Amino acid sequence: MSNFQNMLERAGSWFLRSGIQETNGGVARYYRSDLGKNARVSTEITGYAVSALIELHRRTGKEEYLDAALRAARFLTRSAWDARLATFPFEYSSNGDRPPGFAYFFDCGIIVRGLLSAWRIARDQDLLDTAVAAGRGMLADFEAEGAIHPILTLPEKRPLAYETKWSASPGCYQLKSALAWFELAKETGERLFREAYDCAVRRGLESEQAFLPGSDNREKVMDRLHAYLYFLEGLLPVATLPEAVRAYTAGIQRVAGYLRDIAPEFARSDVYAQLLRARIYGQAAGVVPVDSDAAEVEAREAARFQLQSDDVRIDGGFGFGRKAGAMLPFVNPVSTAFCVQALALWNDRTSNALPAEPASLI
After folding, report:
1. How many C-beta atoms surround the C-beta of residue 63 within 10 A?
2. Which residues contact 38 (CB under 8 A, 6 or more apart)?
């Protein structure tokens, strides 16, 4: 068995058998290996898991991945979706111990994209109907003059006061979630969805230069690299626009420079994976050729985050990050999804295969 196939099978087994997906179909934010327990189920992370499991099904043909993806998707539509408020609350609880209610623009977009990825295969109308309703809710609730509110209080749907941390303030990173509008426009033909995506592109291009470094704290800069790469991912449908080409090309170089500088102190696996994906998709779009030497390093570093253990809750999953060379105790579904896809795309290059359309980007 090749190293790639071994990596893929172990990561897939982790998604299916570690318990990170709970019996109701929801997926926990991460597994704490030092505490021996899952964090709370997250609607956002469940959305990511739907897309990841669909990708595993596409690559292996195994029905167990599709079954798990549909369990997660139906958890989102039947349990997590709040039809009265027309939104997805931040976290889910079956026993009422959820924190005060919030809805995140970013999370809603990730969930919509996950539902659409499942709908394209299963053609379950409920998946599409919920995705469309959530997309319309994003338009109605989060849009503001000149910005997109990142967080709303529930049930009032009032914007939460902005904070300095990237996830609690508007920014170019929101373009990744706005991909939901682009994809909804393709599936439904609704003009308002495409107009909203195009507006998010303009805002992202106007603000992206100020996003990095964004902090004097080097660990926070690493976190912002992850978020900035969301912006590059969100550009992919319009990557050949002249202003997008400039931002995409320069953005890859900026992220790579910061990553090399900060990684000995703190490195996130998802940043390596996202940067590698950005290189490969950028070349496929005709924007920027892959720097093969740099990409080889990023692929090698991303692969080093896959965990080995006798514990099924850990083995095959990818760790979130390292500090001073020591692995942090978070076995993370999103890190696993991003690293698996990035390494699969890198492996595809050996057969000169082009990546699928940006809609397949987890």
Report:
1. 9
2. 19, 20, 22, 28, 29, 30, 31, 32
Low-confidence ranges of the chain (pLDDT < 70): 1, 92-100
87: β partners: 82
Structure tokens at 287: 């924007």
How many helices and strands, by DSSP H and E, does the chain display? 12, 11
pLDDT confidence of residue 80? 96
**Per-residue DSSP letter, 217:** -
Number of structural domains (the chain) is 1
The residue type of 267 is A
**Tell me, what's the pLDDT at 145?**
82
Query: In terms of Cα–Cα distance, which of 161, 174, 163 is closest to 207?
Result: 174
CATH of the domain at 297: 1.50.10.10
Task: Name the residue range of residue 242's domain.
Answer: 3-360
Q: What is the pLDDT of residue 352?
A: 74
**Strands 143-144 and 147-148, sheet pairing:** antiparallel
Q: Which two tokens stand for residue 36?
A: 């021996």
What is the pTM (predicted TM-score) of this model?
0.96
